[in-house]
Amino acid sequence: KNQVEQSPQSLIILEGKNCTLQCNYTVSPFSNLRWYKQDTGRGPVSLTIMTFSENTKSNGRYTATLDADTKQSSLHITASQLSDSASYICVVSAGSGGYNKLIFGAGTRLAVHP
Amino acid sequence: DGGITQSPKYLFRKEGQNVTLSCEQNLNHDAMYWYRQDPGQGLRLIYYSQIVNDFQKGDIAEGYSVSREKKESFPLTVTSAQKNPTAFYLCASGTTAGGYTFGSGTRLTVV
Fold this sequence. Notes:
Number of strands of chain A: 11
Number of helices of chain A: 0
Order of helices and strands of chain B: EEEEEEEEEEE
Strand content of chain A: over 45%
Largest sheet of chain A: 6 strands, mixed
Structural class of chain B: mainly beta
Radius of gyration of chain B: 13 Å
Shape of chain B: globular
Largest sheet of chain B: 7 strands, mixed
Strand content of chain B: over 45%
Shape of chain A: globular
Distance between the termini of chain A: 41 Å
Oligomer: heterodimer
Largest interface: A-B, 25 and 23 residues
Order of helices and strands of chain A: EEEEEEEEEEE
Structural class of chain A: mainly beta
Number of strands of chain B: 11
Number of helices of chain B: 0
């Protein structure tokens, strides 16, 4: 069964600190892995997308890693800001062409406090 | 600016009523999708369409209907057969290369 599990479920950090969010998946065949940021009451916004051959991708203060052997990904946020408070969703695309099905994790809810 | 627009942002439905959620995109994307988001759960696929005049059921299609008469538009109707319609609904559009853009969502509440 295709699954994406994220941890922790929720996280509170102080402004300026770093944090790492985890994503484990069992999806086959693997096409790509995406991280999205979703503010409360808004649609998800793409942060990174990685294919099988990529193991690191950065977008400003966000750095995603992918270990295709262990089927794990992480999202590292550096020097957190209050505006980083949001849900972060890991999404794995399953398929080898044509229609690729997206498998969504339940998300990690991050709260950054001053 | 290119984008995907959902309306309304908030919608209230009485028991036994059908309601239609709008989704319009000007990104020239072939594929469009409808997802439902409930607290503590990942997004679940309701319906998707890869081309005009064609659409497929997703994982939780019961109680929902869609149409795709134009490339730009993919409206979702929540029918009275949907027993638990209160949720946040997200529309997305995408390309075969994998680019994916979400709308800002519609929050539907049954009153």
